[in-house]
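Quick one before lunch.
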Amino acid sequence: MEIRNDWTKEEIKEIFDKPVMELIYEAATVHRAYNDPNEVQVCTLLSIKTGGCSEDCSYCPQAARYHTDVKVHKLLDVDFVLEKARNAQENGSTRFCMGAAWREVRDNRDFDKVLDMVKGVNALGMEVCCTLGMLNQDQAKKLKDAGLYAYNHNLDTSEDHYEEIITTRTYDDRLDTIDNLRKADISVCSGGIIGLGETNEDRIGMLHTLATMEEHPESVPVNALVPVPGTPLEKQPRVSVWDMVRMIATARIIMPRAQVRLSAGRVSMTLEEQALCFLAGANSIFAGDELLTTPNPEVDQDKEMFMTLNLKPRESFKGAAAEKFNMA
Ligand code: SAM
Ligand code: DTB
Ligand code: SF4
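Model of the S-adenosylmethionine complex:
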C-alpha cells in the first residue's frame, strides 16, 4: 500500500462511515503494516506561559476574554522548565512539548528564552516540541537551529466550521504557519478537536485537509473537547468513545505512518476505551498529571495501563519523522 495524498472527501467518507467493527479491523491492519502495534509514544506537555491570550478560540480556557479559573502565569524560567523535562524523561517520556498561550511568536526576550528551553531539552536527548501559536519563516528557522524537532499547530476543525469556533485568525493563517514549519524542516504535528458542535462532514473535511497536504503531518493529535466552565463551549456534551475511534481509525487508514495521538479527553475514558483507540491505530499519548491546564490520567495509572496492555513506550527519534529529519 502506497502513502497517498490525493484522497477525495468521498473516499474518506466511505472509510469514516464503515461499520465500526470493519473500520477498526481495517485500521488495525494498516497500522500493523506500517508500525509496531505494541509501541506507543509517550509525550509530556508543559504550559510554559498560561492564560491571558488575546484570541477567542471558543474551546480554550486560556483566552483572556473568558472567565475561567486557570492560574495565569508569565513565561516560566528556563531552569524550572528543564527540571520538568528531566522529570518527564525519568517517567518514560521521549517527547517534551512546551505550550504558550500566545496568538503568535514575537521576536522578543521571551522568544530568546524559549530558544534556550529548546536547546536545553534537546540536549537531554528528548524530542522537543513547541506550540506557541503562529510563526513566520525566520522564527521557524531560529527554532530549528536551536534544536526544535516538532511543532504543534492544529487545524482544530474543518475550514467550514472554523469561523464558528475562532474569529481572531483564519484557516489560511494556520496553513501558512504549517507551511513555514515545512520550509524550516521541522516535523509537523497537526490535528484537531472533536466535540465542538461540528458535523461528521466537518470531521471528514478536517481529515481531508490533513491527508491531502503535500506531506502528511508526522503527528496527528485527536483531542476530545475538554469542556471548561467559563468558555463558550462549556455546555457541549462529551464525545462518545465511538466518535474518537472513528476519527482515529480513519486518520490511521489515510495517514498510515503518522503518529496518531489520543490527546485531550483521556481522563474521562476507561482503560478499555483507550485500548480500543490503540487497536484502532492510536500510537501516541500525552502523559503527566496535567495537559496544559486541565487534568490528565495520573502517571502511575498510565504506567499500569502500559503493563496491563503490554505496551512499549517508543524510543525517541524513531520512525517516519526521524528518517526524514535525520536525527536518529
Ligand atoms: N496558543 C497556541 C495555539 O493556539 O496554537 C498553542 C496552545 S493551544 C492551547 C494548543 C491546542 O490545544 C489548540 O489548538 C487546541 O487544539 C487544543 N485545546 C485547547 N483547549 C482545549 C480543550 N478545552 N479541549 C481540547 N483541546 C483543547
Ligand atoms: C494538542 O493537540 N493537544 C494538547 C497539545 N496539542 C498542545 C493540548 C490539549 C489542551 C487541553 C486543554 C488544556 O489542558 O488546557
Ligand atoms: Fe490562545 Fe491558543 Fe487558547 Fe487560542 S488555543 S485562546 S490561541 S492559547
